[in-house]
């Protein structure tokens, strides 16, 4: 049986005469009228208002600087420190921080001018972000009723996200070498007091690029006023099994991080958490502002519709 000869000529590429190819499928054309749009605006404004009030009440229930409160989180805060500056944010080498040996001694040019130290050795970790790590240390003391002084135990690990600790930040493979031997041939950032492989002398598993303090700092804040987690109350022993007992407290601060150069301010925050997180008013305020704007627009549209009529008979041609 012979093959059917293909069509030729100007009509050879014409689509088949089907509903799909000839665009004859049924379609829905929604007509937006005041009767459908205005109720939606009022409903959306009400939803945003309810969410805003609910989140605001939730945030207000979060306690800060209040004792006898179960799990307590210790934060350090900075004001007027712009971690969201673009040149600051890109001044890092993610390949180096993820543990690639070929980037350990050949950092990215984005780290400039914090690529090599004064001795000519490559900096690890390189860049302005790592170089400016917050390096104050704190010791919190509880003054008991019997005039005794007890150091408040703080957990200094488990402060990071799982993805940060296990995916975004990793040490170079050591093999049979120590971590110090792996970092041999590199130098510490200029403002650091110790090299990265000696950040935690009490726990060898908290050194290098997987150090919790380093990871917390390297997650840049979106706003110039922020706080970052420093430690969590360890509730294993009395009198801290139920949180921080009522009483007087003092903090011993090792001052290493200067703030006068950027006209900033440092602060210490003790806080509890709710299901919503810490005390942050941004999201509830955003919902309340959105609710007000939508309500205002809905009222304006209602007035216009009421004045000119839904069929536009009062509108001038």
TrEMBL record:
Cell compartments where the protein resides: Membrane
GO BP field: phospholipid translocation
Bilayer-crossing regions: 40-59, 285-306
Entry keyword set: Membrane, Transmembrane, Transmembrane helix
InterPro entries to which the protein is assigned, alphabetical: CDC50/LEM3_fam
Similarity comment: Belongs to the CDC50/LEM3 family.
Protein's UniProt name: Cell cycle control protein
